[in-house]
Design a protein that fits this description.
449 residues, Cytochrome p450, 5-stranded mixed sheet, 3-stranded antiparallel sheet, binds protoporphyrin IX containing FE
């Protein structure tokens, strides 16, 4: 007989737990690890089920995935931006959409993008000069946006759309967080300054994407890229997507592919600037494997420390710090009854900092990912790319891009903080670093700084 899910204490009238969650989302989620594997939350009249341990999370995402579909507050907020694209669509639409998208992310395709990815990093870092203080998030965003607009949406309008998105995204991400934590549409339709800013940013982005579609329909698409493939439709069913379907897919690729990798790189640069030991080991590996020459796709397997470093960054600071689903039927999760229609929330951030699974969870230790140290519980608790059928399609794409960018930047530059102060995560729609700036010092490969 499944147990009834207990609702967490500390609700206040109307808001439920929303204000506590909005006040300190990361602390709130981490504190619930001591509770049952599934606990109840109330967000402005909406009942949610928070999953607090990795086994229960895997049941929702993998083992019992047929019982859960995309939905819940995080996905509903994402839909405001990406509509019914591949990230947010339900299982039935996903069966049609995934085969169209998947080939663009195959290893062989990604290998073919590697040179372009490295060129984009060089282009984004070309203006850098010795002693310059630079805005880390803006720089990594530029790298990631260039890559997507040269590989997946490779037309001039694709580049413009990525630029518009770069300008509009901070507003949009700031606006999505309250929409996620307060799932009451009327609140976000009030004519407040914040709501108007959000609507304006979305309108700017929509206009840029309409332009991309017009260019591709007029025949100036790249023919080989992901967007051309999406627009060609599905041969088997004869389905050709209309403009609104295409719009949702472009938004999905831009939203999923740019900000996530940009955020991973921004965290990585901040950590390097604060961790001389990590920096020394990274340089030692790059110098030994590359000897000062540019990194290529074939080098990636010879950079295991670099990969462990990026994985450890994703453990501590998963850009997608919340996942959400909706139960399509009544389901028992680890002995707890989740009713049909319930929203379910999982936090990779909280699970990946569980001290019972990751000793010294706040410590930055890339070597915990050495095969001889890694436990199956740790592997299962690492959900930075999600799990199951809806696991990230762009994982290899993103990790390849991040490795090439890290090797290229760390080969030429030493990054330094511009003042004291801890590295603080800023939970927006994605998790971004609060500190913005670092200083650049040229580095000669072979010299240990
Ligand atoms: C390294 C950075 C990245 C991280 C941490 C990341 C994380 C994630 C996560 C957690 C999901 C699953 C969401 C859920 O279960 O609700 C996801 C899905 C997805 N990601 Fe990524 N992602 C990254 C990079 C990318 C890139 C570079 C692309 C494309 C260019 C991409 C495209 C996608 C797509 C298309 C999906 C939807 C998959 C599906 O539902 O079939 N991601 N990502």
């Amino acid at each position: 007989m499944p147990q009834t899910v207990r609702t967490l204490p500390g609700q206040i009238p109307v808001a439920g737990h929303a204000t506590r969650l909005a006040w300190d989302p990361l602390g709130f989620l981490e504190r619930q690890r001591e509770c049952d594997p599934v606990v109840g939350l109330r967000l402005v009249g909406r009942d949610c089920y928070l999953v607090t341990d990795a086994e229960a999370a895997l049941r929702v995402l993998v083992v019992q995935q047929e019982c859960f579909d995309k939905g819940g507050p995080f996905m509903d907020a994402a839909r405001l931006l990406v509509g019914n694209g591949v990230i947010t669509c339900n299982a039935a639409d996903h069966r049609m959409q995934r085969p169209v998208m998947k080939p663009a992310f195959h290893r062989s395709r990604v290998a073919g993008y590697a040179d372009v990815m490295r060129q984009c990093v060089l282009e984004a870092t070309a203006p850098w000069t010795a002693g310059q203080v630079f805005d880390v998030s803006a720089a990594t965003y530029r790298m990631a946006a260039l890559v997507v607009s040269r590989t997946l949406v490779a037309s001039p309008a694709g580049k413009q759309a990525a630029d518009v998105m770069a300008a509009a995204l901070p507003q949009l991400l700031r606006g999505l967080l309250p929409r996620m934590l307060i799932p009451a549409a009327w609140v976000h339709r009030l004519p407040t300054r914040a709501n108007r800013r959000f609507d304006r940013a979305r309108a700017r982005l929509d206009a840029a994407i309409t332009e991309v579609i017009a260019q591709y329909r007029a025949g100036s698409g790249d023919e080989q890229d992901l967007l051309s493939r999406i627009m060609a439709g599905d041969e088997e069913s004869g389905h050709r997507p209309d403009d609104s379907e295409v719009r949702d897919q472009i938004m999905s690729v831009l939203a999923a592919g740019v900000e996530t990798t940009a955020s991973l790189l921004a965290w990585t640069f901040h950590i390097l600037a604060r961790s001389p030991d990590v920096e020394r080991r990274l340089w030692a590996e790059l110098d030994a494997s590359l000897g000062g020459r540019p990194v290529t796709f074939d080098d990636l397997t010879a950079l295991p420390y670099t990969k462990r470093l990026l994985t450890e960054v994703l453990r501590l600071y998963p850009p997608t710090w919340l996942l959400s689903r909706v139960a399509v039927k009544r389901t028992d999760v680890c002995g707890f009854a989740v009713p049909q229609g319930a929203d379910v929330i999982i936090s990779p951030y909280a699970l990946q900092r569980n001290p019972d699974v990751f000793p010294d969870p706040a410590g930055f230790d890339p070597d915990r990912w050495l095969p001889e140290r890694l436990t199956s519980r740790q592997r299962q608790s690492f959900l930075a790319f999600g799990a199951g059928r809806r696991r990230c399609m762009g994982e290899f794409f993103g990790m390849t891009q991040a490795t090439l960018a890290l090797a290229t930047v760390a080969g030429d530059w030493q990054l330094r903080t511009t003042g004291p102060g801890p590295l603080r995560p800023l939970p927006r729609f994605l998790l971004t670093p609060a500190g913005q700036h670092l200083q650049l010092h040229p580095r000669v490969p072979g010299e240990q700084g």
